[in-house]
Amino acid sequence: MEQFISTYVWPAAIMVGQSLLLLVGLLVFIAYILLADRKIWAAVQLRRGPNVVGPWGLFQSFADLLKFVFKEPVIPAGANKGVFLLAPLVAVTLALATWAVVPLADGWVIANINVGILYVFAISSLEVYGIIMGGWASNSKYPFLGALRSAAQMVSYEVSIGFVIVTVLLCVGSLNLTDIVMAQHDGLGTRLGLPPSLLDWHWLSLFPMFIVFFISALAETNRPPFDLPEAESELVAGFMVEYGSTPYMMFMLGEYAAIVLMCSLTTILFLGGWLPPVDVWFLNWVPGIIWFVIKASLVFFMFAMVKAFVPRYRYDQLMRLGWKVFLPISLAMVIIVAFVLKFMGWA
């Protein structure tokens, strides 16, 4: 009995505790990321943004949470009730499930599996099902059209994201996310005789892929200028048009969890994860998770700024960018990176 407890019960209890801690931290972070999104958007327009609830509006997201929770959910008479309510649950569950393998610092990961990047790619590919279910179950042409657009968009840009990840994996030689970060401790900069620094991270050696990944992440998470699935001017509110109260909030939570995940993946694949920008003693004293949060927040700041200064794409432009521009570029870069690694003997 003691062996059973020590072998199965304790590890399971520890994993559940770690998962709850991560989820609580992630949800609080998402609440403030949402506030930051609104504040940045307001600053660009020379407004104050949310500033009433709490000091400087810091509790605005929690007030919004209470508002959504206490509103009455309205389900359309012609909707498929079961699928209608299941769709936001699927969307938010899949968005949060990907975080099981994301390392926030050295050793700070719930499941340090060897195929971590494949797990993230597989689960994030399934997120489109929540959107399709919500659009179809609403039994209305506007949500259904928005869901179809979203499905086509996410599939189109997942292809180029997949090739971007392949170029990183060629350089690292591992599918483990922790190994991908540690491989950036020495890279292009150290090969040129410089001390370990941000010049070793993959953003420099794979710069075209860094740009392709960033733009594809915008499209994958339905962020402006690629927010066609919920384009207010054309489809009222896209696949969420029939949703209100808590189900609507769960869709938005899933969307922002996916956005924060993409910011974290950009940090892990291209910006050195939790590594400090320069390998010096006083920067190494700073806990890795602080560097990770700072980098992910900077990536999100760029996400928010793109919303402010790039106009929305037409749907044909969106598809052309994904299939006729990003796919050939990323495919060519896979071949070029493989050739350079083999030719230089770095493989």
| Major sheet characteristics | none
Structural class: mainly alpha
**Helical amount:** 55-70%
Give the SSE order as H and E letters.
HHHHHHHHHHHHHHH
Cα distance spanning the termini: 49 Å
Oligomer: single chain
What does this 3D model show about the protein?
The chain has helices at 2-44, 60-70, 81-97, 116-126, 128-137, 141-172, 177-182, 188-191, 202-205, 207-220, 232-235, 245-270, 281-284, 288-309, 315-344. The chain has 347 residues and is mainly α. Helix 2 (60-70) packs antiparallel against helix 12 and helix 6 packs parallel to helix 15. The longest helix is centred in the N-terminal third of the chain and has 43 residues, at 2-44.
Helix/strand layout:
Layout: H1 2-44, H2 60-70, H3 81-97, H4 116-126, H5 128-137, H6 141-172, H7 177-182, H8 188-191, H9 202-205, H10 207-220, H11 232-235, H12 245-270, H13 281-284, H14 288-309, H15 315-344
Helix pairs in contact: 1-12, 1-14, 2-12, 3-5, 3-12, 5-6, 6-10, 6-15, 10-12, 10-15, 12-14
Short description:
This protein has 15 helices and no strands. With 347 residues, it is mainly alpha-helical. The longest helix has 43 residues.
Any descriptors?
mainly alpha; globular; 347 residues; 69% helix
